[in-house]
Amino acid sequence: MAAVGSRAGLDTISMCTEGQDGLVYMQCCGQGEGQGVQRKLNAGPGTEWSADGNTQQTNLLSFPRSSGVDLPYSPESVEMDEIMAAMVLTSLSCTSPVVQSPPQRDLLTGDMECCGGELSDSGSSGYWSWDHGSVSPAPSPSVTEMDRSLDQPTDEGLHMELDEAACEEPKARRCKSLSRGAYRCLWPGCGKVLTSRVGMKRHIRILHLGGGSEQSQREEDFYYTEVSSEDEETAPPSPAPSFSSGAWTSCSSTQSQSTPGHQDAPVQSSPLSQSAPSSVWQIHTEHLYQACTPVQVMVSPGSPTFCSWSPSGDVQQKPQISASRSRSVSVGEQWLQRNSAPTRSQTMSASPSRGHCSFRKGRGEAKKCRKVYGVERRDQWCTACRWKKACQRFPD
DNA sequence: ACTGCCGGGCA
DNA sequence: TGCCCGGCAGT
Q: Taking residues A181-196, what's their average pLDDT?
């Protein structure tokens, strides 16, 4: 019935359902592994995927359920098929044997990878962003986009998980932003709708154009159109939040012992998501940067995973960021004043490196004659300053 | 726009 | 050598 194949060059998953019995056959070939996994899932009519006690799959196939994509399986709906394909692909990307190999990875790292894998299709891996498309409105294609899309539904699940109370208002805001825009794939017979342009491009490139050639990258634009997501909202909007919620929760709380039945462990690292960690790590460091600059978080540079960053902080940090930033200046100044008080010149050159949160000492922090005395009292400047030379009184 | 200061000119 | 300033780069 439905055959979905990806030619991302990474994996090939094909899935088809067989008539009435609703059996679903999937084939997943890991990249370069050459090993195919064939699975036969029982998804009869009216069967909820998650309800299947299908060992490994169970966890992952609970996606759809938690996603709110209630799947009274309606074979006549191509859309549904695609959704299911998406689910399956997602699941497989997490369950593939390669994926599961290191289950005892560093939790956070693994989780992050999982995040990256789940939420980001960035990187060269050509991750299956497209299948999230119908499932999750925000394939959150790249790090930058992820940053931007903090108010996109992708994180909503996270919000809901992490801080429901605080999110009442942002939620409303986000609901609005949900209706911001969507992109519909114009490829004949596709019609997939994604909320992210990048995701859509990737979808087109991977699925339809079949590769990442430069040319096809440019061609993508022709195959999707922007649609007001009002139409799209007729479709159940909830899938994304809880879907990504799953992914993110496993991400967010390093010790998230999500209830059995939630997917957590198997989702850790996959060949598909292997490109993700770096980007996610970027996020990490970025937020780290934001978080620890002002607040002097104790982060041992050697153990980067330890930084007390948490998605909750991150996501809800938005309002704080500016405050933090502005505060960082004053901290710097305090530091400067403290250190420059006793021995001005000598200590200041001692590198104020404060771990990796260190800031380049801003120009504004250095007190030069001009700053100290002001232009009015120029006569009190050191001669160098008067001559527009390097200040001698307050050398760096 | 402001600041720090290099490079260069002038007496 | 002392003095001054144009102009660049960073904020």
A: 77
Nucleotide with minimal C1' distance from the CA of A384 is B5
Q: Please check whether residues A48 and A120 belong to one and the same domain.
A: yes
Same domain, A314 and A176: no
User: Which nt is closest to the CA of A361, judged by C1'?
Assistant: C11
For chain A, how many structural domains are there in total? 3
Number of DSSP helices (H) and strands (E) in chain A, helices first: 18, 6
Nearest nt to the CA of A371 via C1' is B3
- Could you report the per-residue pLDDT of A167-188, keeping only the tens digit for each? 333 333 333 333 456 777 777 7
pLDDT in tens, A319-358: 333 333 333 333 333 333 334 333 333 333 333 333 333 3
Domain assignment present for residue A203? The answer is yes
Please list the alpha-helical segments (H only) found in A207-317: 214-219, 229-233, 239-252, 276-295, 311-315
Q: Say yes or no: A347 and A370 in one domain.
A: no
**Is there contact between A367 and strand B, defined as CB under 7 Å from any strand atom?**
yes
Confidence of residue A120 (pLDDT cuts 50, 70, 90): very low
DSSP assignment of A72-86: ---TT-HHHHHHHHH
Q: How far is the CA of A277 from the C1' of C6 (A)?
A: 49
> Is A3 within a domain?
no
- Please check whether residue A6 lies inside any domain of the structure: no
Strand C footprint, Cβ within 7 Å: A 360, 362-364, 383, 386-389
Q: How far is the CA of A109 from the C1' of C9 (A)?
A: 40
Three-state SS for A84-149 is HHHHHHHHHHHHCHHHHCCCCCCHHHHHHHHHHHHHCCCCCCCCCHHHHHHHCCCCCCCHHHHHHH
pLDDT tier, A220 (very low <50, low <70, confident <90, very high otherwise): low
* Domain extent at residue A66: 12-274
Top pLDDT among A77 and A46 is at: A77
Spatial distance between the Cα atoms of A389 and A385, rounded to a whole number of angstroms: 5
Nucleotides on strand B lying under 7 Å from protein C-beta: 3-8
Q: How far apart are CA A196 and CA A138, in angstroms?
A: 6
Closest residue, CA to C1' of B7: A389
- Residue ending a domain, among A218, A247, A274, is A274
Q: Which nucleotide is nearest to A372 (CA to C1')?
A: B3
Cβ of A368 less than 7 A from strand B: yes
